[in-house]
Each structure stands twice: as C-alpha cells, then as structure tokens.
Design goal:
By secondary structure, the chain is α+β, with helices and mostly antiparallel strands. It has one domain: Nucleotidyltransferase, domain 5. It contains 3 helices and 4 strands; from the N terminus they run αβββαβα. It is elongated.
Amino acid sequence: MTQIAPITFATRFRGFLPVVIDVETGGFNSQTDALLEIAAVFLEMRSDGTLARGETIRYHVAPFAGSNMEPASLAVNGIDPHHPLRPAIPEEDALQRIFREVRNAIRAASPLLREWITTAA
C-alpha cells in the first residue's frame, strides 16, 4: 500500500502564500466606479489539513472624486460611503497598505518556503 505524504501548507500551495483579496465597489467598472472597501485575508492550515481564516487586514476606502456608485451595488453591499463615522482613507493609501502587509507576510514566510523548496527537490 502506498503511503500518502502528510499535507503541509507548502505542499498544498506549491510554495505560494495564499491570500484572499476581497473588494466592495460601487459597481463593476473599475474606471468609473468607486472602490469602497478592500481586505486581505491570510489563510492558515489546521493540523488536520483544513484551511482556516487567519489574520484579516481591511480598510474603508473613500470614493475618488467623480466616481460612480450604483444604487443597486450600495444596496447589495450595505455601505453608506458618506457616513460620518466611516473611517475611510484614500484609495491609493488603502492599496499601498494592503500590499505592504502582503509583502511583509511573504517575507516572513520566505525562510519556510525556501526550506520546503530545498527539501522537496
């Protein structure tokens, strides 16, 4: 009988760091419709091989000047982009912060990934 190797994070994702990016928008056109929220969700693997949601980083995004926000989209996502207590930041800042966190997570995982690559060969 063939022995099945245990599933590890590195083997499951072939050395890649899985990150789920979620966005909420004011419509489907990236050129005209506002980005309203962005989140990066890091995945973790439990000892039984199932995935679990890990750290989540998210930002409310201020609609850019002149952006379109479809009423149907706002009804679906439930966001009030002009709510006075909504701590929104400019889109550029939100994207830079999200990608910085993802890059930091990749750097932190790099030694583990290098170890997997050298032992898997």
